[in-house]
Amino acid sequence: MAVTLINPAGLPEIDVYRQVSVATGTKLIHVAGQVAWDGGDLATQVEQCYLNVATALAGVGATFDDVVKLTVHVVDWTPERMPELLDGIARAAAKLGTTPAAPASLFGIAALDVPEHLVEVEATAVLD
Question: Is 39 helix (H, G, I), strand (E, B) or coil?
C-alpha cells in the first residue's frame, strides 16, 4: 500500500482522521471538489460528496485507502453542525465499507457555486 496513516506521539488523536499520512507511491491523484447535486440537508450532502469522491477515485483505480488528504468546505459552518457532518461521513463509510481517515482540513465558508450546495469535499491520493 502506498499510504500509511499515523498519529505521531505528542499530537492529539482525533476519532475521524489521522494527523499524518506518509505516501510512498509515485502516482499523485487530485480529485476536484465534489458536491451533492440532488440537494438535501448537510448530512445527506456530506454522504453524497464522499460517495462522489469514492467514484472519482475508483475511476483511476484508487480507493479511500489511497487518500493522503481530504479538504472539506462547509457553508455557514459552526461547531454545532459537527454531528450532522459526522453523520454524513458515517453513512458514507457504511456504504463504502471503509472509514475515510486521512488527514483532513475543515473550512467554514460563506458560499459555494450554487445556493443549494452546503458542502464540498476534495481529495488527494497516491498510488504505487
Answer: coil
* Close Cβ partners of 18 (under 8 Å, ≥ 6 residues apart): 5, 6, 7, 101, 102, 103
pLDDT tens column, 57-100: 999 999 999 999 999 999 999 999 999 999 999 999 999 999 88
Q: Are 42 and 75 in contact (CB under 8 A)?
A: no
Tell me how far apart the alpha carbons of residues 128 and 123 are, in angstroms, rounded to a whole number.
17
Question: Distance between CA atoms of 18 and 70, rounded to whole angstroms?
Answer: 11
Element (H, E) at 23: strand 20-23
Q: Kindly report the average pLDDT of the chain as a whole number.
A: 95
- The Cα 68–Cα 103 span in angstroms is 7
